[in-house]
Design goal:
This protein is an alpha+beta fold. Helices cover 30% and strands 26% of the residues. The chain is built from 9 helices and 18 strands. Strands 4, 5, 6, 7, 8, 9, 12, 13, 14, 15, 16 and 17 form a 12-stranded antiparallel β-sheet that branches. β7 and β8 form a beta hairpin. α6 packs across α9. The longest helix is centred in the middle third of the chain and has 21 residues. It starts with 25 loop residues before the first strand and ends with a helix. Keywords: Hydrolase, Repeat, Transit peptide. It comes from Prunus mume (Japanese apricot). InterPro entries: HOTDOG_ACOT (IPR033120), HotDog_dom_sf (IPR029069). Belongs to the acyl coenzyme A hydrolase family. This is Acyl-coenzyme A thioesterase 9, mitochondrial.
Length: 450
């Protein structure tokens, strides 16, 4: 039989149909604005959530009543909100539930190779939920005013307190806990019951605090937001803690924590550089238990696509965190030679917006390690650069700091496992390591981000 010929009665032009796995941007509800197929077209502003996680899609639908009126028929000269409202944390409190125990498809979308939830996707969902909560707080429920533009400004330290199983239902609860003039802090808690099922109460598996800032959607300038009125004792305590964090951020921006290098600091730099110089000048004599920082680097690049945009047309902040986490995990894996286990992500500032079409480069390295026999720590830095080849420019959009350890079960199987010290080759690298160590120690002593 001629391999190039088609079997009898076959149609060589028959194509295999491919269908979208996302929800349709059309609804089977007839109306006066029905399209040619009798379907109602959703506003284009609600489409971006379709291309993210199932949670993001659901949250976009939840926001539809607020945004639909604006994007379907945007008022040309709509005034800003005239009077600020007093709102309670309860008015913005939002809960999402992952029905992992009963929804097989959802479970598979979030499963990692170790039967736990993919942390990168969870970070993406946290940002989306925080955005929805900020919209609820800032809404004045007046269809004649223009809504605010709300963007992620920063993320406080996110700490994983226990493994998150993909077989047990998961819940995220969030609410606004503090408000400044044009900024909002949202606290999110991820809870899950124990695997054994003996205790029906949920325990906190992960907590995170997001800072959003409000801009006037017409002028782009900072805009005032609705005030917050905490009611319960816990809400009042959370407000006070958030106020303290805000004051600390102001001092850091104003240079309040800057200081001249002291003799002890110079000695730390010299100690770090000493081994690095041996690696550079006499590599055959270098300590075999150490490695140069530059030899731990990984990198990946991408062009930002329309499917990754948020409702304002910019690249979704959760998407950036997701990609940064995946690279950090890979860097820790390649460095340790064992499967890493995520512990926390330090404070993240969103310095520059990322647009559709931008050339984004993620660069990672192992910044330093803590050689603890019980729980070795691997501290990873990931820097996101917005690169413009035609302008010969590259700007930092975000810097992420992740901390990993290694899974105990993996370490137990590898006899003689050891983690290497990371040493700098330049004074700039040494200063950077010392600054990060001091920054983490400062936050720990002041109790922030816990």
């Amino acid at each position: 039989m001629d391999l190039n010929s088609s079997p009898p009665n076959s149609n060589s032009n028959t194509a295999i149909p491919v269908v979208s796995t996302f929800s349709s941007p059309f609804e089977n509800r007839p109306s006066a604005q029905d399209g040619p197929n009798g379907w109602t077209r959703k506003p284009i502003s609600l489409w971006p959530g379709m291309y993210q996680s199932p949670v993001t899609n659901a949250l976009w639908e939840a926001r539809s009543k607020i945004f639909e009126r604006f994007f379907l028929d945007p008022p040309k000269d709509a005034p800003p909100q005239s009077e600020l409202l007093n709102k309670t944390p309860a008015q913005s409190r939002t809960t999402i539930l992952y029905n992992f125990s009963s929804d097989y498809i959802l479970r598979e979308q979030y499963r990692d190779p170790w039967n736990e939830v993919r942390i990168g996707k969870l970070l993406e969902d946290l940002d989306a939920l925080a955005g929805t909560i900020s919209v609820k707080h800032c809404s004045d429920d007046d269809s004649t005013t223009r809504p605010l533009l709300l963007v992620t400004a920063s993320v406080d330290k996110i700490v994983l307190k226990k493994p998150i199983s993909v077989d047990i239902d998961l819940k995220i609860v969030g609410a606004v806990i503090w408000v400044g003039r044009s900024s909002i802090e949202i606290q999110l808690e991820v809870t899950q019951s124990s695997k054994e099922g003996f205790d029906n109460s949920d325990s906190v598996a992960l907590s995170a605090n997001f800072i959003f800032v409000a801009r006037d959607s017409k002028t782009g300038k900072a805009a005032p937001v609705n005030r917050i009125s905490p009611e319960t004792e816990r809400e009042k305590l959370l407000f006070e803690e958030a106020e303290a964090r805000n004051n600390l951020r102001k001092r850091k921006r104003g240079g309040g924590d800057k200081r001249e290098l002291e003799n002890g600091e110079v000695n730390r730099l010299e100690t770090l550089l000493a081994e690095g110089r041996i690696f550079c000048d006499m590599p055959a004599l270098a300590d075999r238990d150490s490695i140069l920082l530059r030899d731990t680097r990984l990198e990946n690049s991408l062009i930002c696509q329309p499917q990754q945009r948020n409702i304002h047309g910019r690249i979704f902040g959760g998407f950036l965190m997701h990609r940064a986490f995946e690279l950090a995990f890979s860097t820790a894996y390649a460095f340790a030679g064992l499967v890493p286990y995520f512990l926390e992500v330090d404070h993240v500032d969103f310095l520059r917006p990322v647009d559709v079409g931008d050339f984004l480069r993620f660069k990672s390295c192992v910044l330093y390690t803590e050689v603890n026999p019980d729980q070795p720590l691997i501290n990873i830095e990931v820097v996101a650069h917005v690169t413009r080849p035609e302008l010969r420019s590259s700007e930092v959009s975000n810097t992420f700091y992740f901390t990993f350890t290694v899974r105990p079960e993996a370490k137990a199987k590898k006899n003689g496992f050891r983690i290497l010290n990371v040493v700098p080759a330049t004074e700039e690298e040494a200063r950077h390591i010392v600054d990060r160590m001091d920054s983490q120690a400062l936050l720990s002593t002041r109790g922030f981000g816990k």
